[in-house]
Amino acid sequence: MSTRTFTFRPLDPLRDAGLLHSWVTHPKAAFWMMQDAKLEDVERAYMEIAADEHHHALLGLDEHGTPAFLMERYDPAHRELVGLYDPLPGDVGMHFLTPATDRPVHGFTRAVITAVMEHLFEDPAVRRVVVEPDVANKAVHALNAAVGFVPEREIQKPEKRALLSFCTREQFEAARGATV
User: Fold this and answer.
1) What strands lie across the sheet with 161-168, from one edge to the other?
2) Are 163 and 151 in contact (CB under 8 A)?
3) Does residue 133 sit in helix, strand or coil?
4) Which of 20, 53, 101, 155 counts the highest number of beta carbons within 10 A?
5) How does pLDDT run across 2-34, given as a tens digit for each residue?
6) What is the DSSP-derived secondary structure letter of residue 101?
7) Contact, 148 vs 167, CB < 8 A?
8) Closest by alpha carbon to 87, among 76, 73, 74?
9) In angstroms, rounded to a whole number, what is the distance separating the alpha carbons of residues 178 and 180?
10) Strands 128-131 and 161-168, sheet pairing
11) Separation between Cα atoms, residue 176 and residue 117, nearest integer Å
């Protein structure tokens, strides 16, 4: 797999809503749970995130500066997983979405999740990344495992049955070293 370089910028809820709307409403983004969202719904959802000190949305940009994926970072002590597990200092929650394409590029999604993890671990305060994908999302479970996530248990969230998984900095480094 060739090495890809991505950069990140904060998502602009108004400027980027049209693009995001096309991504989150695509049938291949079913696990994002916004299939029936209108443009205004996407704007509103990401304006709420932009105003939230515990939740941040970023766009991943390719080497040409073109938006290539969405990344969300959240504090699991305050969002998404409150009451579902006991967060540790240094825990950060993460979501990512790659847009559907008619011309898939081999290794692209793996490069994206690797870049997302690298970005999160650039923050020295981050000790562990937590994810809670739908238990039925087998493709993301495989990607998560490839970068070092270890499933802990299934949990019931209001909107889905989820697989609670964790990846420490050391697990990520070990997984990345195994693929080099």
Assistant:
1) 7-10, 55-61, 67-74, 91-97, 128-131, 161-168, 150-156
2) yes
3) coil
4) 20
5) 456 899 999 999 999 999 999 998 878 777 778
6) -
7) yes
8) 76
9) 6
10) antiparallel
11) 10
- Residues contacting residue 170 through CB under 8 Å, at least 6 positions apart: none
Contact 34, 41 (CB under 8 A): yes
- Is the distance from CB of 163 to CB of 133 less than 8 angstroms? yes
**Cβ-count burial 19-49 (b if 16+ within 10 Å, e if not):** ebbebbbbeebebbebeebeeeebbebbeeb
At 159, give phi and psi (nearest 5°): -100, -10
Q: Which tens digit of pLDDT belongs to each residue from 104-157? A: 788 899 999 999 999 999 999 999 999 999 999 998 999 999 999 999 999 999
CA 144 distance to own-chain centroid: 10
pTM of the model: 0.91
**C-beta separation of 89 from 33 below 8 A:** no
Sign of CA dihedral 137, 140, 144, 145: positive
For residue 1, the 8-state DSSP code is -
Q: Pick from 26, 24, 43, 44: which is nearest to 34 by CA?
A: 24
Angle between helices 169-179 and 108-121 (to 10 degrees): 140
**Of 73-77, 143-147, 157-161, 167-171, minimum mean pLDDT range:** 157-161
For the record, the structure tokens of 130 come out as 């937590």
